[in-house]
């Protein structure tokens, strides 16, 4: 396997994880704000 391709795959996987984590944090934050409202 081409090392450049392998590196790109790792970068893509990291970016995907970062997006997933950011989305989870955003969902938790929005849920907290929703709960504060009566």
Write a brief caption for the model.
Helix content is 89%, strand content 0%.
Explained architecture:
Helix content is 89%, strand content 0%. With 38 residues, it is an all-alpha fold. It is rod-shaped, with a radius of gyration of 17 Å. The model has no long low-confidence stretch (mean pLDDT 90).
Features:
38 residues, mainly alpha, 89% helix, 0% strand, rod-shaped
- Compressed to H and E, one letter per element, the order equals H
Q: What structural category do the secondary elements indicate?
A: mainly alpha
- Average pLDDT score: 90
Q: What fraction strand? A: under 5%
SSE layout and pairing:
Elements: H1 3-36
């Amino acid at each position: 396997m081409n090392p450049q391709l392998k590196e790109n795959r790792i970068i893509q996987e990291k970016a995907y994880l970062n997006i997933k984590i950011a989305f989870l944090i955003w969902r938790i934050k929005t849920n907290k704000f929703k709960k504060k409202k009566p």
